[in-house]
Write a structure and sequence with these properties.
The complex is a heterotrimer. By secondary structure, chain B is mostly helical. Chain B has helices spanning 7-25, 27-50, 76-91, 101-120, 124-143, 148-179, 184-194, 198-212, 223-230, 233-257, 262-284, 289-308, 316-340, 350-353, 355-368, 375-388, 393-421, 438-456, 458-473, 475-483, and strands at 57-61, 70-74. By secondary structure, chain C is mostly helical. The chains are: A mainly alpha, B mainly alpha, C mainly alpha. Chains B and C meet through α6, α8, α11, α16 and α17 of B and β1, α6, α7, α24 and α25 of C.
Chain lengths: 159, 491, 625
C-alpha cells in the first residue's frame, strides 16, 4: 500500500511548483501577456509559500472569538503579510496590463521579440545613433552584401 | 523628538495621495507642497543628526515592542541615506509643469516616502513593502514619458522586478518558516543558530537576486540600459544614484546582521566581478551618453558588490565610500545627460557651447576613474588594499578585474571628453550642439562643488565614514539597541 | 610653521600655475611664466647642497588620510631630476615667448591653455619628485600623467588621438602601479619607504616577482619601454613645438625616476638579481637589461624610417631611454653614473633638437623631411644647433652624449656583458644613420625654391637654443660638473659611486678625460684648418652649382636626395620591420571590441531572463549542493 504523502509536503511542492511554472513561463513565453500571466502564477506560488511558513495544522484561525481560554491559533503574521503581498501584486499586475494596452496601441503587437526590436530602434532613433545590430547593416568596416534570399525574406515576400 | 523621525516617511506618503486633489483645487499651491515636504523632512533629519541624540536608536511603530512589533532603526548610515533621499528628491524634483505634473509629482513623493522607508526600516517584511512601493512609483515615473520605448522598457523592468519580488518573497517565507520572526535584530540573534545552514543560504541568495534587480546585480540588470535610456535623465539620476544604493543597503544589512556565510560572499563576489566585466565592457562600445552611463553604473555597482563580498566586514568602509561616491558622481553625470543624452557623435565640440558642463564632466570622469586626490581615488584605494589583503585567489581575480575595468573606463570616458573638446572641422557649420538644461546644470554644479569640498576635507570625511562603517558593522550594537533600548516611541 | 626651501619651491610652482591660469590670456603671460620658472630654478638652487651629498630636505606639508601619512621631501635624486625639469621648462617657455607665441596664436592655438598645461606639468612633476612615500608617489604619478595628457591633447586633431592613446597606456600603467602599491601595503603594512625597505627582505620570491613586474611595467610604460612604446612618439611629436621640447626632454624620464626610486632604491638591484627565471640562465635584472637594449634598437630603427622630423626625434627619445635604464640596471659605479648622466645629457640635446626643428617649422611651415633641404645657407645658426644636438644624440665626441654612452659601454664590458654591449652599439649605429638623415634632409643639399626667402630663426627662439648648445658642449668638455650631482644621486639610491674628475672618470679598468679628448680633437681640427687655409687659394662653390651622378643639372632644377633615404640599407633590413607591436596593440583593441560587443549582446537579448535565471539557479544549486 502506498502511504499517503504528507499534506504539508504536497502543499510545499505545489507552492514551489507554481513558482517554477511561473518562472518557466516568464522565460519561455513569446507573448508579453503570457509573461504577465506567468508572473501572476509565480506570485501565487510565493504567496502560498508564505502562508505555509506560519501555518499550523492543529490550530484555528487567528480571530478572537471568545475571551478567556483560547485554542492554539495559526500565526497571524504571515497571513497579514500575504494580504499585503497580494494587494501589492494585484496593483503591479494591473499596472502591467495597462502598460500592455499602451504598448499594443503604440506598437500594434505584443510579440516579445518584435517589441524588443521596435524598442531598441526607437531608443536608437531618439538618441540619434545608428542601430547597433540589424539584419540590413551588419557590423564591421566593410559590410558584406546581404544575401538575396535574406532580403526577400525580410521583406516578407516569397516572390 | 525621536518619534518625529517617522515624519519623513509619513509626510511624503500623505502628500502623494493628497497632491492630485490639491493640484485640482489650486495648481499654484500644489506645486509647492512637494518641495516644502522635502525641505522640512531634510531639515528634520539634519537636526536629528546634529542634535546630539545618541545614535543609533530604535523606534517601535504601533505600540508593540520588537520583536513582535515593527520598528525603525536609525543609525548614522540610515540617517545619511534618508537625508540623501530628501536631498536628491529635491534636486531632481520634477518641476516641469504640464498635464502630467500632478501625477509625476505625487509619484515622486511616493518614491521619496518609500525610499526613506527603505533606509530606516528595521523589519524585513516592511522593507519588502517599501521596496515594492519604490518599484511601483518607479514604473509610473518611467511610463510618464509616454513613448512606446518607455512603455516597453517599463514592462521589461516590471517583469524582472516581478521575478525579483517572487524570489524575495520565497526567501522571506523560508526565513519566517525557520525562525518565526522577520525583525532584523531578532533575526540577528537567531541567525547563528537557526540560519547558519543551506536553508539560510538559499534564503539569502533568493533575496540577493530579488533585491539585486534594483541594485543592478549582474544577472538581473538587463533592464538598466533601456530604462535609463528612455526615462528622463533626472529620474535616471535618482534611480542610478540613490535607489540602487538603497537596494544595496538592504543586502548590506542582511549580510552584516543575518547571513554571514562564506558561500554567500563567494556568490556575491562572482556576480560582482561579472557585473564589472559586463558593464564596463558594454559601456566601451556604447554610442550614446545615457546608455554609456547606464552600463558604467552597472560596472560601478559591481565594484561595490566586490567590496561587499569581503569577509569580516573588511570591505564595509570601501562599500560606503564607493556607494556615496557613486551616488554623487552618477547623479551629476546623469544631470549632465539631461540635454547631452543623445549620440556621442553629436557632442562634437559641445564644450564650446557650454564650458561649465564640459568641465564638470571632466571632473566627474576623473573622480570616477580614481584620479588622486579626488574622493574617488580614496574610495578605490580602500577597496584595493582590502582586496589585496584577502588570501583567497578569487579576491585577487577581483582586484585584477577591477584594475583592468578602470583602464577601460578611463578609455571610454575620455573618448567622450575628447569628443566634447574636439574642434569642429569647419567653422561655417552652424553651432547646433546640444546643451545641458539650465536647471540640471545647476544641479550638476552642486554635485561638482560637493565633490571638490570633499576633496579638500577628505581627512574628516574619511574619519566620518570609518565611524559610520564601524557602527554599521557592529551586530551587537544593533541587537542591543532594538531589543533593549526601547525609547518609548509609541504614538 | 616654518617654510622649508622645498615649501618655497612648491609655492613658487603653484604661483606659476596660478599666474598662468589667471593672467594667461595677457600678451606678456609667456614672459611672466618664464620669469617664474626662473624663480623656481633659483628656489631649487637654494637646495643645491642636495646635489653635493647634502641631507634630504622635507616639506612641512603632511596629511593623515584614512590612516595613511602623506609626506613630501627632496633628496639628491629628486633634486637632480628637478633641475632638469625646471631647466627644460625655463628654456622651452623662454623659447615660446615672442615670435613663436604670436605665430601660434595666429594659427588658432590656445596660448592660455599652453602656458597653463606647461605650468601644471612642472608643478605635478615637482610633486612627484618630492614624494615621500608610495602613496604620494602615486598621486604625483597620476598628476604627471594627466598634466601630460592636457599638454599633448591641446592641439586637437591628430594630437588628441595620440593623447588618447597615451592616456589609455598611462592608465594601464597607473593601474599596475596601483595594484603593486596594494600588494606592497599588504606585505609591509605601511607605504613609508623605510617600512618597505625593511619588508623587502621578508618577501617571498613570487611576491617580489609580482612587484617587479607590476612596478617595472607600470613605470616602464611612461618611459616607453618595449612593448609599451607605441604611444610615445606620436604623442610627443604632435604637441606644440616648445611643449614637445619640454616633454621630450623630461616627461618620460619620470618613469626612470620612479624605477630608480622603487626598483633600485627600495627593492634593491641585488634582490632583483636574485629572481631567477626558471629553466633559463637569466634573472629579472637581465630581463630588464634586455628589454632596455631592445628599447634602444627597435625604436631607433623605427626612427630611421620617419619622414617627419619631430616624429624622428621622438622615436629617438624612446631609444635613448633604453641607455638610461641599461646603465641603471647594470648598477655598477660606471653604469649607474652613465645611465643617470644620460638623463641630463639627453634632456639638453633633445630639447635643443626639438627647438631647432620647431624653428624650421616656424620659418618654413613644415617638418616633412621630403619637403626641406639646403636650409644651411638660410638658417646657419639653427644648423649649428642641430649639428651639435645630433652629435650629442649620436654619442660622439666632443658633445656630452658621448660621455654618458661611453660610461654605459664601459660598464657593460667591465661587467662581462658583451652581447648587451654589441646590441647597444647596433642601436648607436642606427642613431648615427638616422640623425644624418635628419640633418641632411633639412639643412644639406640644395635649397628649395619656395624657401629662398626664409630667414634665420628669431632671437627669442635662438637664445634658448644657443644656451642649450653651450650646455651640451660645456658638459661634454667638463662632464665632472653633472657627474658630481650624479654621484650624490647614486649615493642616495644606494649604488656605488665612480671616481670622477672635472674631465671625466678615473678607474683602473680605463679612464676618460674629456678635456684631453677634446683637446686632441680640436688640435686635429686645427691642423686640418692649417692645411686647408695654408694650401693656397680655394674656390668657393655655390650651393646650386654642383652635379650629381655625372649629369649636369641646370640651376632651375633643384636636386635634393631625400625620398627613400638609405634605399640600399632598407632593402637589406626591410624584412625586419613587421609592425608586430602595432599588430599586438590592434589585436588587444579588437579583443576588447569583441568582448564589448558580446556584453552588449547579453544586455540586448530579448529573452535574457531565461539564461540569467538559469545561471542564477545553477549557482544556487551549486552552493546548496
Amino acid at each position: 500500500m502506498i502511504p499517503l504523502p504528507n499534506p504539508e509536503l504536497i502543499l510545499f511542492t505545489t507552492a514551489l511548483g507554481l513558482v517554477a511554472i511561473g518562472l518557466a513561463g516568464l522565460a519561455l513565453s513569446r507573448h508579453l501577456f503570457r509573461t504577465v500571466l506567468a508572473l501572476v502564477i509565480a506570485e501565487a506560488g510565493a504567496n502560498l509559500m508564505l502562508v505555509l511558513a506560519g501555518y499550523r495544522w492543529d490550530a484555528v484561525a487567528p480571530i478572537l472569538t471568545h475571551l478567556g481560554e483560547q485554542p492554539p491559533m495559526v500565526d497571524p503574521v504571515p497571513q497579514a503579510m500575504v494580504l499585503t503581498a497580494i494587494v501589492i501584486g494585484v496593483g503591479v499586475q494591473a499596472l502591467a496590463v495597462s502598460i500592455l494596452i499602451r504598448i499594443r496601441q503604440l506598437y500594434g503587437t505584443l510579440e516579445r521579440s518584435t517589441v524588443a526590436e521596435k524598442m531598441s530602434a526607437e531608443i536608437a532613433a531618439s538618441a540619434g545613433t545608428a542601430r547597433d545590430i540589424s539584419q540590413e547593416a551588419p557590423l564591421g568596416e566593410r559590410p558584406l552584401p546581404p544575401l538575396p534570399g535574406a532580403i526577400s525574406e525580410a521583406r516578407g515576400g516569397k516572390s | 523628538m525621536n518619534s518625529l523621525i517617522v515624519l519623513p516617511i509619513v509626510l511624503p506618503l500623505l502628500g502623494a495621495f493628497l497632491l492630485p486633489l490639491l493640484m485640482r483645487l489650486s495648481v499654484g499651491l500644489g506645486v509647492w507642497v512637494g518641495p516644502a515636504i522635502l525641505i522640512y523632512d531634510g531639515w528634520l533629519l539634519a537636526e536629528q543628526w546634529f542634535s546630539g541624540t545618541a545614535l543609533p536608536f530604535s523606534l517601535a511603530i504601533g505600540g508593540f515592542a520588537p520583536p513582535l512589533g515593527i520598528n525603525l532603526y536609525i543609525d548614522a548610515l540610515a540617517l545619511l541615506f534618508a537625508f540623501s533621499v530628501q536631498l536628491l528628491g529635491l534636486l531632481f524634483w520634477p518641476f516641469r509643469l504640464d498635464q502630467e505634473s500632478a501625477r509625476r509629482q505625487s509619484l515622486m513623493l511616493l518614491l521619496v516616502a518609500s525610499s526613506t522607508g527603505l533606509a530606516l526600516s528595521g523589519d524585513l517584511f516592511n522593507l519588502y513593502v517599501f521596496y515594492e512601493l519604490v518599484a511601483v512609483a518607479t514604473f509610473g515615473l518611467i511610463a510618464v514619458s509616454a513613448t512606446g520605448a518607455a512603455y516597453a522598457a517599463t514592462l521589461r523592468y516590471l517583469i524582472l522586478s516581478g521575478i525579483g519580488s517572487v524570489l524575495t518573497l520565497l526567501g522571506i517565507a523560508l526565513i519566517y518558516g525557520q525562525t518565526g520572526t522577520l525583525n532584523l535584530a531578532h533575526l540577528a540573534q537567531l541567525a547563528p543558530h537557526q540560519l547558519n545552514d543551506t536553508l539560510g543560504l538559499t534564503a539569502f541568495l533568493l533575496i540577493l537576486i530579488g533585491v539585486g534587480v534594483k541594485a543592478e546585480l549582474f544577472p538581473v540588470n538587463t533592464w538598466v540600459p533601456e530604462v535609463y535610456a528612455t526615462a528622463s535623465s533626472r529620474l535616471s539620476a535618482f534611480l542610478a544614484g540613490l535607489v540602487s544604493k538603497l537596494a544595496l543597503l538592504i543586502i548590506l544589512r542582511l549580510l552584516v546582521l543575518v547571513f554571514y556565510q562564506p558561500e554567500a560572499l563567494q556568490v556575491m563576489l562572482v556576480l560582482g566581478i561579472l557585473g564589472v566585466v559586463s558593464g564596463e565592457l558594454a559601456a566601451w562600445r556604447a554610442k550614446d551618453v545615457r546608455r554609456m552611463l547606464a552600463f558604467s553604473s552597472i560596472g560601478q555597482l559591481g565594484m561595490i558588490f566586490i567590496a561587499l563580498a569581503m569577509p569580516d566586514g573588511a570591505g564595509l568602509l570601501a562599500v560606503l565610500a564607493l556607494a556615496f561616491h557613486h551616488l554623487v558622481i552618477k547623479s551629476g553625470l546623469f544631470s549632465l545627460a539631461d540635454g547631452w543624452g543623445g549620440a556621442i557623435d553629436q557632442l562634437r565640440g559641445a564644450a564650446k557651447a557650454s564650458p561649465l558642463a564640459a568641465a564638470l564632466f571632466v571632473l566627474f570622469a576623473l573622480s570616477l576613474i580614481g584620479f588622486p586626490p579626488l574622493p574617488g581615488f580614496w574610495a578605490k584605494f580602500t577597496l584595493i588594499t582590502e582586496l589585496a589583503s584577502q588570501t583567497s585567489p578569487l579576491y585577487l581575480i577581483g582586484l585584477t578585474v577591477f584594475l583592468l575595468a578602470t583602464v577601460v573606463e578611463a578609455s571610454y570616458l575620455f573618448r567622450l571628453v575628447a569628443t566634447l573638446y574636439e574642434k569642429s572641422p569647419d567653422e561655417t557649420e552652424p553651432a547646433e550642439t546640444p546643451k545641458p538644461a539650465g536647471l540640471s546644470l545647476v544641479t550638476a554644479s552642486l554635485f561638482g562643488l560637493g565633490l571638490l569640498a570633499t576633496t579638500l576635507f577628505i581627512a574628516p570625511v574619511g574619519d566620518l565614514l570609518s565611524h559610520v562603517s564601524a557602527q554599521t558593522g557592529n551586530v551587537n550594537l544593533y541587537i542591543d539597541t532594538v531589543m533593549a533600548g526601547q525609547t518609548g516611541g509609541s504614538r | 610653521m616654518t617654510f622649508t626651501p622645498l615649501d618655497e619651491l612648491l609655492l613658487y610652482s603653484g604661483a606659476t600655475v596660478l599666474v598662468a591660469l589667471l593672467l594667461g590670456r595677457r600678451l606678456a603671460a609667456g614672459w611672466m611664466v618664464t620669469i617664474l620658472y626662473g624663480v623656481q630654478l633659483l628656489g631649487l638652487l637654494k637646495m643645491a647642497s642636495l646635489g653635493y651629498g647634502g641631507t634630504p630636505i622635507s616639506s612641512s606639508l603632511s596629511f593623515q588620510v584614512l590612516g595613511q601619512t602623506l609626506s613630501w621631501r627632496f633628496d639628491a635624486l629628486s633634486w637632480f631630476f628637478a633641475l632638469i625639469t625646471l631647466g627644460s621648462a625655463l628654456l622651452s617657455s623662454w623659447y615660446s615667448c615672442g615670435e613663436w607665441e604670436r605665430a601660434f596664436r595666429r594659427q588658432g592655438g590656445n596660448l592660455w591653455l599652453f602656458h597653463l598645461a606647461m605650468a601644471l606639468n612642472v608643478l605635478s612633476m615637482l610633486i612627484l619628485l618630492a614624494s615621500g612615500d608610495l602613496l604620494s608617489l602615486f598621486i604625483g604619478w597620476e598628476l604627471v600623467s594627466w598634466a601630460g595628457f592636457l599638454l599633448m591633447a591641446m592641439a586637437g586633431g591628430i594630437a588628441t588621438k595620440a593623447a588618447m592613446r597615451y592616456i589609455t597606456y598611462a592608465m594601464a600603467g597607473a593601474m599596475m602601479i596601483f595594484g603593486g602599491i596594494a600588494l606592497v601595503y599588504v606585505s609591509a603594512g605601511s607605504l613609508q619607504y623605510e617600512a618597505i625597505l625593511t619588508a623587502v627582505g621578508r618577501m617571498g620570491t613570487a611576491h617580489l616577482w609580482m612587484l617587479v613586474i607590476l612596478f617595472g611595467a607600470g613605470f616602464g610604460i611612461k618611459m616607453g619601454l618595449l612593448p609599451f612604446h607605441l604611444w610615445q612618439a606620436p604623442a610627443y611629436a604632435e604637441t606644440p613645438g616648445p611643449g614637445s621640447a619640454f616633454l621630450g626632454a623630461i616627461s618620460s624620464r619620470m618613469g626612470l625616476f620612479a624605477i630608480a626610486l622603487v626598483l633600485v632604491k627600495l627593492f634593491g638591484v641585488v634582490n632583483i638579481e636574485s629572481l631567477k627565471i626558471p629553466f633559463t640562465l637569466i634573472d629579472a635584472r637581465d630581463l630588464l637589461a634586455w628589454i632596455a637594449v631592445l628599447t634602444i634598437i627597435l625604436p631607433t630603427f623605427t626612427a630611421m624610417k620617419q619622414n617627419d622630423a619631430r616624429h624622428l626625434l621622438a622615436w629617438h627619445g624612446i631609444g635613448q631611454g633604453g641607455y638610461m635604464l641599461l646603465g641603471l640596471v647594470v648598477a655598477d659605479a660606471m653604469g649607474g653614473a652613465g645611465g643617470l648622466l644620460h638623463v641630463f645629457n639627453h634632456a639638453t640635446y633633445q630639447a635643443a633638437l626639438f627647438m631647432a626643428v620647431t624653428a624650421v617649422i616656424h620659418r618654413t611651415g613644415t617638418a616633412d623631411l621630403n619637403k626641406l633641404g639646403g636650409l644651411v645657407v638660410r638658417m646657419p645658426l639653427s644648423f649649428l644647433v642641430l649639428l651639435v644636438g645630433i652629435i650629442g644624440l649620436a654619442g660622439l665626441p666632443p658633445m656630452n652624449g658621448f660621455v654618458s654612452k661611453w660610461l654605459v659601454y664601459r660598464s657593460l664590458l667591465n661587467q662581462g656583458m658583451p652581447l648587451l654591449f654589441l646590441a647597444s652599439v647596433i642601436g648607436t649605429l642606427g642613431t648615427i644613420l638616422s640623425v644624418y638623415k635628419l640633418i641632411h634632409n633639412i639643412f644639406l643639399g640644395q635649397l628649395r625654391v619656395e624657401h629662398e626667402q626664409v630667414r634665420e630663426a628669431p632671437w627669442s627662439m635662438m637664445i634658448p637654443m644657443l644656451i642649450l648648445t653651450a650646455i651640451i658642449f660645456i658638459t661634454g668638455l667638463f662632464p665632472g660638473i653633472p657627474l658630481a650631482w650624479v654621484a650624490s644621486v647614486q649615493q642616495a639610491v644606494g649604488l656605488p659611486v665612480p671616481d670622477y674628475t672635472l674631465g671625466g672618470v678615473t678607474a683602473s679598468s680605463g679612464s676618460l678625460d674629456m678635456i684631453w679628448v677634446i683637446g686632441v680633437l680640436f688640435a686635429g681640427f686645427g691642423i686640418g684648418a692649417l692645411i686647408f687655409y695654408g694650401a693656397g687659394p680655394s674656390k668657393r662653390v655655390h650651393q646650386l652649382d654642383n652635379y650629381a651622378g655625372g649629369h649636369f643639372l641646370t640651376a632651375d632644377v633643384r636636386y635634393q636626395y631625400s625620398d627613400n633615404f638609405y634605399a640600399g640599407l632598407m632593402h637589406l633590413i626591410k624584412g625586419w620591420y613587421r609592425g608586430s607591436f602595432l599588430w599586438l596593440e590592434s589585436s588587444v583593441k579588437s579583443l576588447v571590441e569583441f568582448l564589448s560587443l558580446g556584453m552588449q549582446g547579453i544586455y540586448r537579448r530579448a529573452n535574457a531572463e531565461f539564461y540569467l535565471l538559469s545561471i542564477a539557479l545553477f549557482v544556487i544549486a551549486w552552493v546548496v549542493i
